[in-house]
Amino acid sequence: MITSLRIPQEPFLLRLFQLWQKAPEATLIRDRTDDGKDFTISHFLYDVLTVQLSLYKALDNDCKNRLRNPDADVFVGVLARGGYSFSVLLFAIYALGAVAVPLSPDLHPEEAKYYMEVCNTTLLATVPAATAKATVLSDISGIKTFVFDATQSTISDQPKFHLDTQSPLIEPEKGYLVLYTSGSTGPPKGVLHSRRAAWEGFRADIKGLGLSARDMFIHFSPVQWMGGCMLLHACILSGACIEMRSTTFTTDWLLARIQEGDITSMYLPPEQLSVLRDRINAGQTEGSHSTYEVTLRAIRDLRLLISGSMLVSPSLRDDWKIIRNGKPITVAYGTTETVALISVTNDEESPLDSCGRCLDRVCVRVDSSGEICVKTPALFTRYISPNPDVMDGVFDSEGYFRTGDLGKIENGNIYIFGRASQDAIRSNGLKFYAPEIEAELCTHPLISQAIVLGVPDPLIGERVAALVVTTEHAQLLQDRHGTDGSLDEISRTNLNLFGIRKWLAIDRELRAFKLPTMLRVVGPAYELPKTISNKPVKSKIRKLIFNNKVDSSNGEVEVWDFTTKESNGIGDRPFDWP
C-alpha cells in the first residue's frame, strides 16, 4: 500500500493538491452510476496518481518514449460511462501526459474502432462494467486493454501528498483531450485540445458559471460530449461536489431528486426542460399540493440552471422565469472546438432570444457571410480525420475559428440564427433561418419541441418542413378525445397543417413565406434521430420523414397545395413577402 505520493506540478494536479490541503475529506464525487459510493478529494487524488503509474506500466516502450517527446502524442481510449472511475481515468491520463479519447460503451464496435484508429489509439482503458465491450474492441482492433476497478483501490486511511519539485513539466502544447464532433452536419471529426487550452478553458468555465466548493452539481449528461466533459472538469477543478448518474434517467427520478433540496446546480437540455416544465405545472392541479410546493421551492433555490447545445426558445425561457419566480435560467453557447464556453446569459438583463455575452478573453465577430467567428486561448489545436483537407478554411487570416453558426452581435449579446450547413432555408429566391420558425412553434401550448428544415422542391427551391413533438398534455387529450377530438379547450387551433399555418400567421404574425408547407406531428414518445449531445440530426430526419417518397394521402406527413387560397388574407398582408 502506497502511503505517500508526489504531485507533479501540472495545473490540474496542483489544483487538486490545493483542494486537498483545504479539505482533504470533503466529498468530491458522488457516484450513482457505478456502485453508489461517495469519494473524497483525498481518495480521488490518490487513485489518479496510482492509476497513472499503472497506465504507464501498461504502455510499450515506444509509447513511453513518445510521452517524453514534446512533439508527439500518445492516445488512450476511455471506454466508460460518466462516473467516478471515468473521472479517475481521465485525470490519470492527464497526469501521464497522454491524450484521453472518451468513448461511449453504447457505440457500435465498428464505429468505436473507427474512432480509435483515426487518432492511432495505443491503449484502451475501461472499467469492469464495460469489459465485455472492451474485449470485443480489443479483438477487432488489436489494441491492448487496461481495466480500472475502483472497488480494488488500496488507499490508506490518511494518504500523504507532497509536491514534486524535481520532475520536468510536460510541454503544455501536447494534447490532452480528443472529443468527436456531434456528426449533426457531417462525418464526426476528432477535435484535439492541448493541455494548455484545456486548463485555460476550464478555468474560464468555472468563473463564467460561478462554480465553487459550495456547489452540489447533479450531472447526467454524456461525458463524451463537450458540454458533459466540460461540466465534469469544471466541477472537479472548482471543488464542487458533483453527483454523477449516467444510467436510468427519468423525469420521475429527477423530480424526486430535486425535491431532496440539496442540489444547487444542474444542466438540462431544452427537451428535458420542456418536459420538466410540463410536469411541474401539472403538479398544481394533479397530485399532492405539498409535493408541488416542495418541488417549486427546490427549483427556485437552484443557484444555477443551465441549458444549451441547441435552441432554447424565448417562450421556454420565459416559462422557466415564471416557475423560478423571476430568476432566469442560464443559456450557454459553445462548440466542441472551444473548451471555454463562448458566451453565457448570466443576468436578468440578457434578451430572451440571445446567448448572452462573451466570457473573458473570448473574442467574437461576424464575417461578411454572417458566420460567427471566435478567437480564444481555449481553441482546439487541430482536427483528426482521414480527410487530408479537413483543416482547409477552418481559421480565417487572423486566427479566428469559423464556427459554422450564423448569427449577429447586438449590444454585446450574441444571437444565433442556426447552422450554416443545415438551418438556412432558400425558398422562392428568399433566404431565412429554421430556428426562428422553431422558436415560434415552441410557443404553441401543445408543442414541446419543433424541428424545421428545408426540403428540396423543383418549383420553389425548398419547402419549409416542420416536425413537431406534442406535449404530454396534448397526448393525454388526444387519447381522451380520439383522432377526431378537438384540442381547442387550451388552444384555438388543431395540430394540422392548415391550423398551424393559420396560428403562426395570425397569432404569431409570422410572414407568409416562412410558414410550413410540410408537417408531421408526433407524440412525446417518438424517438427522433439524435446525436450524443441530444441534438436532432436534421439530415436523418429529412431522409426518414420528409423524403421524396412522401405520400400526403397516408395521413402522416401533410403537404401544402400551393393553389389553395387561404382565409384571413394570409399571403396578402403587408410584409408577407419581401
Q: What do these coordinates show?
A:
- Residues 75-383 form the AMP-dependent synthetase/ligase domain.
- The protein is globular.
- The strands form 7 sheets. A 9-stranded mixed sheet has the order 3-2-12-11-13-14-15-16-17. Strands 5-4-6-7 form a 4-stranded parallel sheet, with helices on both faces. It has a 4-stranded antiparallel sheet with strand order 18-19-21-22.
- It is α/β, with parallel strands linked by helices and 578 residues long.
- The longest helix has 18 residues, at 41-58.
- The chain has 16 helices and 28 strands.
- Helices cover 31% and strands 24% of the residues.
- It folds into 3 domains: 4-171, Rossmann fold; 266-418, ANL, N-terminal domain (Rossmann fold); 424-559, GMP Synthetase, Chain A, domain 3.
Distance between the termini: 75 Å
Mean pLDDT over all positions: 89
What's the CATH H-level homologous superfamily of the largest domain? Answer: ANL, N-terminal domain
Most strands sheet: 9 strands, mixed
Strand coverage percent? 15-25%
Strand order of the largest sheet: 3-2-12-11-13-14-15-16-17
- What is the alpha-carbon Rg in Å? 25 Å
Gross geometry: globular
The residue ranges in which pLDDT falls below 50 over 5 or more consecutive positions are 483-493
State the CATH class of the largest domain: Alpha Beta
* Class per helix and strand makeup: alpha/beta
Specify the number of helices. 16
The percent range for helix content is 25-40%
CATH-defined fold name of the largest domain: Rossmann fold
Extended strand count: 28
Q: Structurally, how many domains make up the residues?
A: 3
Based on the coordinates given, report the CATH architecture of the largest domain: 3-Layer(aba) Sandwich
